[in-house]
Amino acid sequence: MGMTLDKEARQGLTLLSPTALYALLMLAAPLAMVVTFSFWTQNYLDIETTLTLDNYREAWSKPIYQVLMIRSLKISLLVTVVTVVLAFPIAYFLSFHVKNRKALWLFLITVPFWTSYLLRVFLWKVILGYNGVLNTALMELGLIAEPLTFILYNANAVVLTLAHAWAPFAILPIFVALEKIDRSLLEAAEDLGDGPVRRFFRITLPLAMPGVIASTLIVLIPTVGDFITPKLVGGTDGLMIANMIQIQFGKANNAPLGAALAVSSMMIVAVISLIIYAAGKKFGGRVQ
Amino acid sequence: MSSLSKYLSGKWLTVYAVVYMLFLYAPVFLLPMFAFNDATIISFPLQGFTTKWFDVLWETQALHGAVRNSATVAISTAVISTILGACAARASARYRFPGKRPVMGFIMLPLVLPEIIVAVSLLVLLMQLGMSLSLWTVVAGHVLICTPFSIAILSSAFQGLDNSLEEASFDLGESRWGTFRRVILPLVMPGVVSSLLICFTISLDEFIIAFFLTGTDVTLPVYIWSQLRFPTKLPSVMALGTILLALSVVLLILAEWFRRRAAKKQGIEASAGGFM
Amino acid sequence: MAAIDANDIIVLSDVTKTFGTFQALKGINAGIREGEFFSLLGPSGCGKTTLLRMIAGFDEPTTGTIDINGKPMAGISANKRPTNMVFQSYAIFPHLSVAENVGYGLKTQKMPKKEIATEVDKALDMVDLHGLGDRGAHELSGGQRQRVALARALVMRPKVILLDEPLSALDKKLRDQMQVELRSLQQTLGITFILVTHDQEEALIMSDRIAVMFEGEIAQLASPEELYRRPRTKRVASFIGVMNFLDAKLGSQDETTLTINIDALGPVQVPIDIAPAGLNPATIDAVGIRPEMLTVLGDGNDNAEHKVEGEVTGTAYYGDMTYYTVQLPGSGEPVTISMRNTAGRSVLPAGSKVMVRWGAESVVLFE
């Protein structure tokens, strides 16, 4: 025995190998390449392959990148909080109050997500614009005298649009966690004298915590990398780090700097994710 | 405290759910409205009913090219991702072997990785290898992000497959290939179709990777992106979006129907939330 | 260990199985006779299912050999063996009808469709599922699924049918009924059945012979009656039915009799041949008596040779039977005694002083 694999292990590994190989070639190799790239420099049309930290120095010290990075994190965190907080009651509603049509509700929640992402973002621009749907409606109703201007071409618009885009990703993990809660636990808590509110905070919320953490991470990580939403509805105040990465790879033609920015932002997001994960584990530590 | 308890009660939650659904569907409702609106400017009030923006689509040659490109990319992506997904899902559901968790975790990574990172990394690699961008580079990127979805869908199909069914077939004298053909394939087929449809839909809508990796042949979302700059083109973009929305919804309903059939075939109650 | 006969349809020789560092089977030797109903009985984890799966061909022994019908089975996969299995989960193909399930193996053999249909009908008749061939798998009850699984194996006319806890998913009433049906079907067809079960009652009712297994070893292989009356070890004795154990020592022995001093009951003479083969009388440290071999007498007016005074400490009324726990003088644990509730016999309350009668022939000796 020892080092040799048994028959079952060999069969399993063989079967997994095409997919694993693909991930290795198309994901591991490119990621390694980006990291390598970030230590190289752009020399007009050529790439200078001497290893250097110049890109990182620039990425971490130039005010524009600092501003963009901090804003990206702020917006992403805000988006995450808003999305998860808005999503929780829906997941709770689906799990505890919808009896027969759960699958239909879930389907309805996912449908908007499958509409062209570009058009969804663009339509938010239509809704939130100066002559947009919202302003027209509010003026028709006489609620406002002049169109609201704080709702488009700024960070608010980015938060709203992203919260919309990631809604199903936030709802589903929480829903799954809530569904897993044994309903007799809630009856037991009530039987032991807890009212609905105390029961919610002592039983439901802690048990749903793994779902909440999953939602948080699922929303937070990709939103940092979004550049469509900021570009379409963010105005100049709403631009994020991903826009700068895109510019470096595109117009600015400085891929190594773009790579350094990408690696830096991924590192920061990874650290924040680990903190959230650890905090979540501590809070819901006895779960699982 | 008592107000919160009320807040959690069914009535208020229902109201909240309805408002939330309106929020989710606001852009979806607007899309067909402007697609059939007889005005060049995308704003209220609506001007009257027309189908002329759909007619414009038939006459736009560049669009037809983009549709063909997207179809090629989406079909290739769906087929490759589903094959890779089936291998991984089967390996993970059926076999125990060392390193399963980390390898599977890595394969599923694109699910949480920002698409811009996936796109940029592939771009850098292709640049270094001196390969030119084409529809196939887009397919390469799309397969990467679609495979985890395929695995998620097919895992439930393969996990629902009772091991003793294979053993029973084997015990009754059938060969390995015969068992695959007569037992495994019919039972996971709906899952396979569901995976094909989902991967097709994702690839059809995907923009960021396509934007970075596409060459001179653009896909549909990249084409739409280029049109968004021209205000006069917007109504026909809305019309295009409406068609895409209808197509996506039909494909999704089909996918869900197949997934449920798979679950029913295996005698399992169709669990909610199959897509994620 | 049971002697291995040249006529045995299955011969297991020194079969071991190791999973990683865990030794699931530690050298199994047994012969299974053609046409018998043979049970592998033991608690979960004793290796009985592993052994069955190795006979079926789903697993290979780590060492040792399995011969079926005179042929060594090493390297012969499950689809080439003359055995068919009824799975614990029944493994009914969910996408096929009852008839397609039963005809599955025949189709593999490329039998013409018409013949398959005839064979399938015959098999369905055998298991009392006449006319249900068109039903879908999901339309069947638990009992019906069990019957389909059986028909699917029977239709292959195997030398041996392997049953892996086939009745464990059924409710008590249906299980009792199926035990009788399975047994009579096996006797009618004369096919060898090997049953894996953890239910001692099931094994006793159905089997010709039973191998009791603990921790990868056969503790005893015998007929149901012998297993019950003459269990070789305390563990077998307490796994099959209830046994009262009383501390005892060898008093003296001659050519035909052993005198045993039982702490709670006093000395008793037993014929030497009730001692199991290989037991050294000097090592006897306990005797066992089944609850029904003890009798509680309310008044004590009895001329029995062996009787002892005791006090009822508890009763459990089962309708047809009453189980008493009786404290005997000098024995630590109270003994359990079962009494049939016949007419005119009333249940004695706890605290009653009673006489307990017993017979020397019912004593089992243990090391």
TrEMBL record, chain A:
Keywords: Cell membrane, Membrane, Transmembrane, Transmembrane helix, Transport. The chain crosses the membrane at residues 21-40, 75-94, 106-130, 150-178, 199-221, 257-279. GO terms for biological process: transmembrane transport. It is a multi-pass membrane protein. Gene3D superfamilies: MetI-like. The keyword Transmembrane applies. It is found in: Cell membrane. Its main location: membrane. InterPro entries: MetI-like, MetI-like_sf. GO terms for cellular component: plasma membrane. Residues 69-278 form the ABC transmembrane type-1 domain. It comes from the Bacteria. Belongs to the binding-protein-dependent transport system permease family. CysTW subfamily. This is Spermidine/putrescine transport system permease protein.
Automatic annotation (TrEMBL), chain B:
InterPro entries: Bact_Polyamine_Transport, MetI-like, MetI-like_sf. Keywords: Cell membrane, Membrane, Transmembrane, Transmembrane helix, Transport. It is a multi-pass membrane protein. It holds the Pfam family BPD_transp_1. The keyword Transport applies. It is found in: Cell membrane. The chain crosses the membrane at residues 12-36, 71-91, 103-127, 133-154, 183-214, 234-255. One of its GO terms (biological process) is transmembrane transport. Gene3D superfamilies: MetI-like. Residues 67-255 form the ABC transmembrane type-1 domain. One of its GO terms (cellular component) is plasma membrane. Belongs to the binding-protein-dependent transport system permease family. CysTW subfamily. This is Spermidine/putrescine transport system permease protein. It comes from Shimia gijangensis.
Automatic annotation (TrEMBL), chain C:
GO terms for molecular function: ABC-type polyamine transporter activity; ATP binding; ATP hydrolysis activity. Residues 10-240 form the ABC transporter domain. SMART domains: AAA. Keywords: ATP-binding, Cell membrane, Membrane, Nucleotide-binding, Translocase, Transport. One of its GO terms (cellular component) is ATP-binding cassette (ABC) transporter complex. Its EC number is 7.6.2.11. It catalyses: ATP + H2O + polyamine-[polyamine-binding protein]Side 1 = ADP + phosphate + polyamineSide 2 + [polyamine-binding protein]Side 1. The complex is composed of two ATP-binding proteins (PotA), two transmembrane proteins (PotB and PotC) and a solute-binding protein (PotD). Part of the ABC transporter complex PotABCD involved in spermidine/putrescine import. Responsible for energy coupling to the transport system. This is Spermidine/putrescine import ATP-binding protein PotA. It comes from Shimia gijangensis. The gene is potA.
